[in-house]
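Saturday, quiet lab. Running sequence design on the structure tokens for the scaffold JK sent over.
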């Protein structure tokens, strides 16, 4: 029955105990590290019923089997570890900075032979790079350049070359994009961002339809121990209940702001794919970008994204941000506040740059 429900309904209805008189409406927060022998449970690093509720719900939204990890990076690491020792990975030239750092560190240690960096929107460049590759990494849209890939084409090319395809779906969320339906093998999330949605939980997840890959990801999680606490998955599931509403509202706000930003004389370039709730702007210099970041009162100058509250930051303030990201780029994570209040605050900070 739930297969026919829309994502907005499944986000609310799944991951709950069966409807039975006296049953709780919410899943239990199960705080036990061990289980009485002889049943289907063993030990908390291997599985937990509160994880199950989160994994059932996210898995349904993405159309596969989900596994919760301690952070987005723990999930990224598990997915990249699907590449063989000495393998070749294709990745966007401007992906999430810590993913890029992890890939670089694996090349430095010999864990990977090579990372081929490509513009993910250039399908023929991706196809050329995929020859002889073991794993193709996608992030679409990318953080923070908001480059959108043709996910279906890249997944198809990866499959035809025998490479595993992975898509970091953190920015799009399963409300706006379901990469498994487009042929991708593994979806990765920083659930810290939109899924949990309130900037109070660090959590990651993988989702796949391939049973052999799921087994490898589960083994990676159990052996390396990058597991979340039950409380984190409980809070993230509570966040998912409102995911569709938050994505709709923050996306509506972003659309209005992207248009107005594009018309403001202090803004030299707006990057906005036409959907989602991240907008990146360039303002002409590092000093002006820093002044914009410091000049708002409602918007908070902070890293991270995907929460109910609006945040902004100059990404190149991080030493490991890829150099392909312009130095004067400010990434805006648009929240669910009233759009007129958001605009009034941004406008006064931009006016002050003139
Ligand atoms: C934040 C982020 C990550 C890392 O997630 P953490 O939960 O911070 O470990 C990975 N990918 C993208 C696109 C992100 O924005």
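Result came back. Writing it out in full:
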């Amino acid at each position: 029955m739930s297969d026919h429900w829309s994502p907005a309904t499944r986000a609310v209805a799944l991951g709950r105990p069966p409807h039975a008189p006296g049953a709780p409406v919410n899943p239990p927060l199960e705080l036990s590290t061990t289980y009485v022998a002889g049943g289907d449970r063993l030990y908390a690093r291997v599985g937990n019923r509160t994880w199950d509720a989160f994994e059932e719900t996210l898995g349904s939204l993405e159309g596969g089997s989900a596994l919760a990890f301690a952070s987005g990076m723990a999930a990224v690491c598990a997915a990249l570890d699907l590449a063989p020792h000495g393998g070749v990975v294709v990745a966007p030239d401007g992906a999430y900075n810590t993913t890029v750092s992890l890939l670089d560190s694996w090349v430095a240690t010999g864990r990977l032979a090579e990372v081929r960096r490509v513009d993910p929107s250039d399908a023929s460049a991706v196809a050329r790079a995929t020859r002889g590759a073991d794993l193709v990494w996608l992030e679409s849209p990318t953080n923070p350049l908001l480059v959108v890939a043709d996910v279906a084409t890249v997944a198809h090319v990866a499959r035809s070359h025998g490479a595993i395809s992975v898509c970091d779906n953190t920015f799009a969320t399963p409300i706006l994009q379901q990469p498994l339906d487009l042929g991708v093998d593994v979806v990765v999330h920083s659930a810290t961002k939109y899924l949990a949605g309130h900037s109070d939980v660090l959590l990651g997840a993988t989702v796949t339809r391939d049973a052999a890959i799921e087994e490898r990801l589960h083994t990676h999680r159990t052996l390396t121990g990058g597991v979340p606490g039950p409380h984190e998955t409980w809070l993230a599931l509570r966040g998912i209940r409102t995911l569709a509403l938050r994505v709709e509202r923050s996306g509506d706000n972003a659309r209005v702001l992207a248009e107005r930003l594009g018309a403001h004389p202090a803004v030299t370039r707006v990057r906005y794919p036409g959907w989602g709730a991240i907008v990146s702007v360039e303002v002409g210099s590092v000093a002006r970008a820093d002044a914009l970041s410091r000049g708002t009162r409602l918007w908070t100058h902070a890293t991270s994204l995907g929460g109910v509250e609006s945040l902004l930051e100059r990404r190149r303030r991080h030493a490991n941000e890829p150099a392909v990201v312009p130095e004067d780029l400010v990434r805006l994570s648009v929240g669910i506040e009233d759009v007129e209040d958001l605009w009034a605050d941004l406008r006064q900070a931009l006016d002050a740059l003139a």
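Notes for JK: The chain has a mean pLDDT of 97. The first strand starts at residue 65 and ends at 69. Ask whether to fix the surface positions before the next round.
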